[in-house]
Amino acid sequence: MYVLIAKQFIRSKVVQLSLLLLLALGIMSVLIGKQFLQKQERTLANVTQHQQAHIARNVELHREIGLLLYYLRFTLIDKPDRIAGLSIGQRDVNPSVQSVTIRTLEAQLHDTDLNNPSNLQSGNLDLGFVIIYLFPLVVIAFLFNLLSEEKEAGTWRLIAVQSNSTLRFLWMKLSVRILLTYCMLGGILLLAYLILSLPVNRQLIAFILVAILYTTFWFAFCFWVVSFQRNSSFNALTLLSAWLILAVLLPASVNNYVANLYPVPESLAAMVKQRERYHEKWDMDKKITMDKFYTHYPQFKKYGVPQETFNWTWYYAMQQMGDDESLKERMAMRAKIKQRENASRWLATVIPTMHTQLLFNDIARTSLSSHLQLLDQTIEFHERLRLYFYPKIFENAPVKSEDWKKFKPEYTRAENNINITFALLPLFLLTFGLASWGVFNFRKTNDA
Amino acid sequence: MIFKIARKELTEIVREGRFRITAITLFALLLAALFVSKSYYTSVNAQHSEAKKNVRSEWMEQGQKNPHSAAHYGTYAFKPKYPLSLIDNGVDKYTGVSIYLEAHKRNEAQYAAAQDQTALSRFGDLTPDFVLIFIVPLFIILIGFNAFTRERESGTLRLLKSQGVSTWKLTMGKWLGLFLPVLFIAIPVYVLAALFLANIKDYGQFSLWALTLLFGVYLIYYAVFINITLFVSSLFKKSNVAFVTLLGIWMVSCLAMPKISTAIADKLYPYPTQVEFEEQIAVDKKKGLDGHNPWNTEAKKLEEETLKKYGVDSVQQLPFNWDGFLMQEGEKHTADIYFKHYQLLKDTYVNQTNVYRSTAALSPFLPTRFLSMAICRTDYTSHWDFANAAENYRIELVGKMNGDMAANSKYGDWDYLADDKLWSSVPDFQYEPASYTTVIRQNTSNLITLLAWLLLSFAALYGAVTKMKTI
């Protein structure tokens, strides 16, 4: 019986077509993930190599340490994990590498990678996309006529007469489809594991769990719709509309809603203010700037107020003021972005597609919050550099006295502390609820 | 006969619940999208015009300053918004809106909206273009997938044939039966959009002609999808199979192909990384003239040449301020370097664009996508055009500052101050976008591809229905 059902299922043109398409796109997505990882690796290799060359060249060129540090850039890297190849997320928009001079920070934080925006607009065909968008379509194509095809072909009565339990028969049909889909998912994941040489760790396991649960949700959902026992065309239409709403319309609307709810005009304001505050210092009495600077860093008070027309201590104090005096705008902007992030997350918990997308990105460390963490770490990194170099500049230490070779790019890691059990709960509850409701519907009609 | 069939198709489609529901949904979606875009842009625009005004007044009221300091202080160029961007926002979300213009340095546009958004933004935006070129084809599939299979399943196809109705006439009737509902949605949207866009302020000139062109492109695109839908429906026996196949086609051409093309374009013509790009510029800069460093080799050479030219022994004796002159020469040199490297970048982008143009042969979505953005002036080419204009303005502004310093101050006199007169001699940044003739010329290949899709899909449909079996 089982084998017969399986044979009948696989022989169908629709099934073959969808499996083929899914497999092709799945493989492609893994290859695209690999291309992304290679590009990132190239970037990192470049950064390391260039930083050394860049420092060596500038050290050769400049005699004054103040002028030298005007030019020198230091790099902080948050290396993407291999698993980022499965869910590229926002890593293509937000760079993994932050290169900063010790001058005013604000404008440097907004540098982006060079990209063709048309490419960003189309987005990435990563495995996450295949799982979130395409697997549901395949599940729909497999299940929409689970019962109705029997009814429409007139075989349902025969089955009802011949088998002990119609529900058991349906379950057999269903399990063949579920099994095949899981095999497909497993196969593509295995390919991804081999091609991307993914390490087996908590992240990978979490990713697989989420992928399985998400697919199961769609099974439960389709089963629920089918349990109302309408005709094929009605089921197809309903399921497709549901897919469209869940995978396309709701996410777009929520994103627009959240973006409108928390507009971030502060970024522009912060930038303009930072420029204003820095540049006005050129025309002010040096003492005003220096007093403010020494209030922030009392440990440097001993360097006093410079008398000459130009002096590096004064110059860097002015640069510092650009940051200090635009701090309020910067914080306001950051708070807004965090609000956006939180609002999206909260709304997403009840919408499986969005929830899964955000989870995948969290697991792969490619989300907005990872980037925000990197920005925070960059601010710390920048401060550390400042505190290290300020005394040297103020004392006009000879350039040669510093061992410049030791300034290699630094690595950091923005950790996402996600509680995977808690994150999976909404998906699990939805799946369980829909499946039970579906079974209940069938029981009811069976008894009647 | 054709019209009779079309009328019969229409009655059937309209009578069925799914048309009413989907049409109403679609219409509501479009209105919502238009409304969302509008409210979003009014707020963004308000912020921008405010910032723009401030930036200009800051420039005008910067007080007395050394001209070169003023050039360092710089100003901002803001990218103007056009009415049609409310229909298709294109890549604007990813390009940034303002460019900081300062001495010695060409900056990239910053503050791309996408940077501050969560991954949800990648699902798409609820903007009219999203509905018009992404969702409407799905609507066509939904109402047309069983155009032939339904007749076949109920046996009426044989009946029609036996009565002497030619299959081509039948097809044309069905074609009209699909096209008219689409028109029924598109025309009110077009009229509403025209009324709406003509009445918003602060968005520059609205061109009805461009809007008409845009809808013309969309209608051709819809015709292509109608052809594909009927073609597939005529091939299969079962409605279900036709439906799933059409869904697959939609998914591949509208969802997967754009992403696949991106991967191919990036693979074949990768962009340099930011670090690489900046490093190459830095290397070139260091090789040449440094306007701030008179001991630099190139600067020394220039000094000798200039002294010889004027027949004097020292820079103090020159009729102009050597510092200002030297800095301007340095500026010219860096501008050339930027020009060179940005040209290389542009070559990569042109190559990538060509990849998209070739893959457009595999998906009617792509040429439509690019034409739509180009007509709305929100494509990457428009952004380049703006960035170039901003760079020219920057060169002019810095040149004026250095020129004033060279002409009106003495060598070594860094205390020389200029005032409002000089600041107001620099006009506000004005940007005129490329004319539509240029836009269309740049997109001829997209237009041709789309028209080719139309003709070929018609031909395929014709071929399929003339050979169609009735059972």
What features would you describe in this structure?
The complex is a heterodimer of chains A (448) and B (471). With 448 residues, chain A is mainly alpha-helical. Chain A has 17 helices and three strands. Chain A has one domain (1-448). A three-stranded mixed β-sheet of chain A has the order 2-1-3, sandwiched between helices. Chain B has 471 residues and is mainly α. Chain B has one domain. Chain B is 70% helix and 2% strand. Chain B has helices spanning 2-15, 17-60, 67-73, 92-95, 128-144, 149-154, 156-162, 167-198, 208-235, 239-268, 274-287, 297-310, 322-359, 365-375, 380-408, 420-425, 436-442, 444-466, and strands at residues 75-78, 98-102, 105-106. In chain B, a hairpin with a 2-residue loop joins strand 2 and strand 3 (105-106). In chain B, helix 3 packs antiparallel against helix 15 and helix 14 (365-375) runs antiparallel to helix 18. Chain B is elongated and about 105 Å long. The interface between A and B is large, with 100 and 96 residues.
Task: Please sum up the structure shown.
Chain A has 17 helices and 3 strands.
* Biggest interface found: A-B, 100 and 96 residues
Return Rg of chain B in Å.
Answer: 30 Å
Which series of helices and strands of chain B comes N to C?
HHHEHEEHHHHHHHHHHHHHH
How many DSSP E strands of chain B? 3
Low-confidence segments of chain A, ≥5 residues, pLDDT <50? Answer: none
Structurally, how many domains make up the residues of chain B?
1
Order of helices and strands of chain A: HHHEEHHHHHHHHHHHHHEH
Which strand order spans the largest sheet of chain B, edge to edge or round the barrel?
1-2-3
What is the quaternary state of this protein? heterodimer
Beta-strand percentage of chain B? under 5%
Which structural class fits the helix and strand makeup of chain A? mainly alpha
Shape of chain B: elongated
If strands are numbered along the chain, what order do they take across the biggest sheet of chain A? 2-1-3
